[in-house]
Write a structure and sequence with these properties.
The chain is built from 10 helices and 7 strands. The protein is of the alpha/beta class. The chain has one domain: Thiamin diphosphate (ThDP)-binding fold, Pyr/PP domains (Rossmann fold). The protein has a 5-stranded parallel β-sheet with strand order 1-2-3-7-6, sandwiched between helices. Strands 4-5 form a two-stranded antiparallel ribbon. Helix 1 packs antiparallel against helix 10 and helix 3 runs parallel beside helix 4. The longest helix is centred in the N-terminal third of the chain and has 32 residues. It is globular, with a radius of gyration of 18 Å. The two termini are 33 Å apart. Pfam families: Transketolase_N. Its cofactor is thiamine diphosphate.
């Protein structure tokens, strides 16, 4: 039993370290580009770390492997967190992250499935990612594949009506092979979620649409892994993991500050952020 605990703790430590690296890459990318969305990328780093380095069945040498798991970044503006994970996973050279949003390079401001190895869906128009994840899930069911689909949604994105049409379809078709994470950081580009248009109660809404719902601390790796395991064990219904997070997590002057939704750090801020994440 002690050995099992040691192994689990080693995994958690490894994923936390990976999340710190991902956060450093996010800061490097947005600083190099002079633009981008660091706040919502930083808030999702722990979730993405757990998925890509403990769960997703993918092959960097064969990005289009038919039996792979799928990941849909529905909040496509948080592309830096996905690019950081893909680079760390070996889908493309790590040096490319410094070319975010630069002409002649493939890391665009939003993920492009035709240009970036490892990206399963082009996203950016909010609200559409869950629908595509549902389509993938249905296709996998029809093909009798065991692969799973994981989608990452923003909380402000839940203001889009298409999200709820997709939620209704997933429940109707009993898609137990799809899981949606909601990055619930409470902030969007124009202010707090409550000020713009409250989506609360999020958990109860998904439950009403027939989903299993798990509420967690989105920065607690152990809770993330436990929720993932529960989602995989659930039969006959989709799962929504509502992850309470902090926008800008890991960088003190960015945390819970709406202004860092879509602004890049300058040279001085870059140095301070990297120091805090080292």
């Amino acid at each position: 039993m002690n050995q099992e605990r040691i192994v689990v703790q080693d995994l958690i430590d490894s994923l936390e370290d990976r999340a710190r690296k991902i956060r450093r890459h996010i800061i490097t990318m947005t600083h190099s580009a002079g633009s981008g969305h660091p706040g919502g990328s930083l808030s999702a780093a722990d979730i993405v770390s757990a998925l890509f380095f403990a769960e997703l069945k993918v092959d960097p040498q064969n990005p289009q492997w038919p039996d792979r798991d799928r990941f849909v970044l529905s909040k496509g503006h948080a592309a830096p967190v996905l690019y950081a994970a893909l680079a760390e996973k070996g889908f493309f050279p790590l040096e490319e992250i410094k070319n975010l949003r630069k002409i002649g390079h493939f890391l665009q401001g939003h993920p492009d499935m035709k240009k970036v190895p490892g990206v399963d869906m082009s996203t950016g128009s909010l609200g559409q990612g869950l629908s595509t994840a549902i389509g993938m899930s249905l296709a996998l069911k029809l093909d009798q594949k065991e692969s799973r689909v994981w989608a990452l949604l923003g909380d402000g994105e839940l203001q889009e009506g298409q999200i709820w049409e997709a939620a209704m379809a997933a429940s109707h078709y009993k898609l137990d092979n799809v899981t949606a994470f909601v990055d619930y950081n409470g902030l969007q580009i124009d202010g707090t979620l409550e000020e713009v248009m409250s989506c609360d109660p999020i958990a109860e809404k998904f439950q009403a649409f027939g989903w299993q719902v798990i509420e967690i601390d989105g920065h607690n790796i152990a809770e993330i892994l436990s929720a993932i395991a529960t989602a995989k064990e659930t039969k006959g219904k989709p799962t929504c993991i509502v992850a309470k997070t902090i926008k800008g997590k890991g960088v003190s002057f960015m945390e819970d500050q709406v202004g860092w939704h879509g602004n890049a750090p300058n040279a001085e801020q870059y140095e301070k952020a990297i120091a805090e994440l080292s």
